[in-house]
Amino acid sequence: MSGDGGGRKKRDGSAARTAFLGMFLALSILASYVERVVPSPVPAVPGIKLGLANIAPLFLMYTRSNRAAFGLNVLRCLLSGLLFTGVWGTLYALSGAIVSFGAMAALKRARAFGIVGVSALGGVCHNAGQLSLAALAVRDARLFYYLPVLIISGVAAGVFVGWVAGVMIRRIPSPAF
Amino acid sequence: MAAKYRILRTADVVLIALLLAFAGAFWFVFGAPGGAPGDTVVVRRGGIVYASLPLYEDALIDVTLPDGEVTNTVRISGGRVFMEYANCPDGVCLRHGALRGGNDIIVCLPNAVTVEAEDGGDGVDAVVR
Questions:
Q1: Which of A12, A18, B46, B83 is least enclosed by beta carbons within 10 angstroms?
Q2: B20–A151: do the CB atoms touch at under 8 Å?
Q3: Beta carbons of A132 and A151 less than 8 angstroms apart
Q4: Where are the domains of chain B?
């Protein structure tokens, strides 16, 4: 399972951890699916969405470890991408997820920031990463006309997701394993 | 986990304000999507011009692979341009609808196809602007 470190010796609670992370993976895949079937709030600009699937990795980043959160996020992108969007969509999702994860992990280390700020930067970097890949794919820098719109929507989505994850962290007792 | 846990801190507000300010500055300097559409519809694949047609003549453009497979179909109808067909599963370019202005661009990422309305014959302006 993600964040398990491969062939490490079993220790107390490894079954609980596997179940816990598996549950979160299922939840985030479900969130990906919900977001696909619910129409975009701004259909004029592709790529604007709430990022509900990022609640789970953000929650794990704060309650477990970066490794668990990263593993969950990559698995989530692979599984929901191949289930719902195909190979290209998967690469696209992964690019955004990896860029935003790196930014969030770095900002979290700075300690001055709360989960809302970390998540807002993550949302912006997610969009910027995907836009860069898109501009590269079509070899057209004019796609960056959408950068301001995607920054604003990334901040809005990130603040929302960060707030939800923050409330979850307050209310859900962290499992001991 | 710390019992006293703050979701929003001062630094967050500063960061969010900076991000929004950057978006605003970018918008101000480079312009927003929109503006007057050009009179020439340009379809590109991988950045290379595939077809270039007048905006005000109805037409149907099939973007085909060397083996003849149609990956995208662009329709020009009554001065409106939109993607009518795409063979990819996500359909983002189909939901884009008609081009809305000079800076607007329909993108089919899986096939690296773009559709724009540019000013005919004035390529430098269209690229640099």
A1: A12
A2: yes
A3: no
A4: 40-128
Q: So what's the pLDDT on residue B33?
A: 58
Whole-number Å distance between alpha carbons of B101 and A39: 23
Q: pLDDT higher for A84 or B122?
A: A84
Q: Return the higher-pLDDT residue of B35 and B96.
A: B96
Tell me which chain B residues have a C-beta less than 8 angstroms from the C-beta of A38.
none
Cα–Cα separations (whole angstroms), residue B28 to A131, A147, A174, B32, B54: 19, 12, 45, 8, 30
Give the minimum alpha-carbon distance from B48 to chain A in angstroms, rounded to a whole number.
Answer: 8
The model's pTM: 0.82
Q: What letter does residue A175 receive in the DSSP assignment?
A: P
For A8-64, what is each residue's pLDDT tens digit?
Answer: 555 557 888 889 899 999 999 999 888 888 877 666 666 688 889 999 999 999 999
Q: What is the CATH topology of the domain spanning B40-128?
A: mini-chromosome maintenance (MCM) complex, domain 2 (2.60.320)
pLDDT on residue B3: 42
- Burial (CB < 10 A; 0-12, 13-18, 19+), residue A148, is buried
Smallest CA–CA separation between B11 and chain A, in Å? 5
d(CA B4, CA B9): 13
In the sheet that holds B70-77, the strands lie side by side as B59-64, B70-77, B80-86
Q: How confident is the model at residue B9 (pLDDT cuts 50, 70, 90)?
A: very high
How far apart, in Å, are the Cα atoms of A66 and each of A71, A72, A88, A102, B71? Answer: 8, 10, 26, 10, 40
List the domains of chain A with CATH numbers: 14-171 (1.10.1760.20)
